[in-house]
């Protein structure tokens, strides 16, 4: 294995197996090559990387005894060495992020319906979590019988953390107390009943946060006040072509670095929805393209490429990306890996 963590061509792949895979990408051709793997315990599904690029964090998505693990990244090879694992203090942890200063990790437990903050030690290891329990439910009796926290991320100012809860139909806002190592509830935004908010993405320059709603196949736009942490719903748009009917569950959402394009993965329709973003933040559906696989989960963006993890067809597929217009074009580049669900460039 020759890739180094400072090399942006190294990709870490979270899976529903016992391994995190390391893949090298050729940025000229889009070709993917597996260069290693690390045993990470059961279901290291969702990954994030510390701002210093020296530590990787993974949830261990177990229903009864969920955990979150820290791995040192070898400078020479990108290989992973486990530092520590902490209990997630809730069932089925499904999301982990790190605040912008690298002092704390944030986790969401789907079955536990709670979110937590874990202090990060100087070597990158994790200390025990401070937890906050969500409450609430929605009209979908199968999926919204109680809270199901699905995502938690810091805002661009690093003063707040926003958490999407699929079961409660809410986006919760917490003050991020880095000194007290705690989350302090500030408020929340109610989504459309039955929407099922799953993942969040901030616009890089506008005071907007976009919400991928899993249960009604929409993207909601919320205006975020970084002064007091309040959220104001603005608009909602479908992630599907107008004529299509069927079962679909959006998963991941990302905004291009230039702020002009937003992408959402559709599980069921098995596609990536491509939205243009106006200078005022309005969305328009420009393209819906097949992921050439089954059940697309997380995906990764670069200036020229979009890589998508197709969980059920055991594949990562590469698309060319127009840096200006944002549209995607198929390539012949793909790699077979078991049950891939999360992609993170080093």
Description:
- There is one protein chain.
- This protein has 346 residues and is mainly beta.
- It contains no helices and 28 strands.
- It has strands at residues 10-15, 19-25, 32-39, 47-49, 55-60, 67-73, 80-87, 93-98, 104-109, 114-119, 130-133, 149-154, 160-165, 170-177, 182-190, 197-202, 208-213, 218-224, 231-238, 249-255, 261-267, 271-277, 283-290, 296-301, 305-310, 315-321, 328-336, 340-345.
- The strands form seven sheets. It has a four-stranded antiparallel beta sheet with strand order 3-2-1-28, with no helix packed on it. A four-stranded antiparallel beta sheet has the order 4-5-6-7, with no helix packed on it. Strands 8-9-10-11 form a four-stranded antiparallel beta sheet, with no helix packed on it.
- It is globular and about 50 Å long.
- Mean pLDDT is 96; it is low at 1-6.
Explain the layout of strands and helices.
Elements: E1 10-15, E2 19-25, E3 32-39, E4 47-49, E5 55-60, E6 67-73, E7 80-87, E8 93-98, E9 104-109, E10 114-119, E11 130-133, E12 149-154, E13 160-165, E14 170-177, E15 182-190, E16 197-202, E17 208-213, E18 218-224, E19 231-238, E20 249-255, E21 261-267, E22 271-277, E23 283-290, E24 296-301, E25 305-310, E26 315-321, E27 328-336, E28 340-345
Antiparallel strand pairs: 1-2, 1-28, 2-3, 4-5, 5-6, 6-7, 8-9, 9-10, 10-11, 12-13, 13-14, 14-15, 16-17, 17-18, 18-19, 20-21, 21-22, 22-23, 24-25, 25-26, 26-27
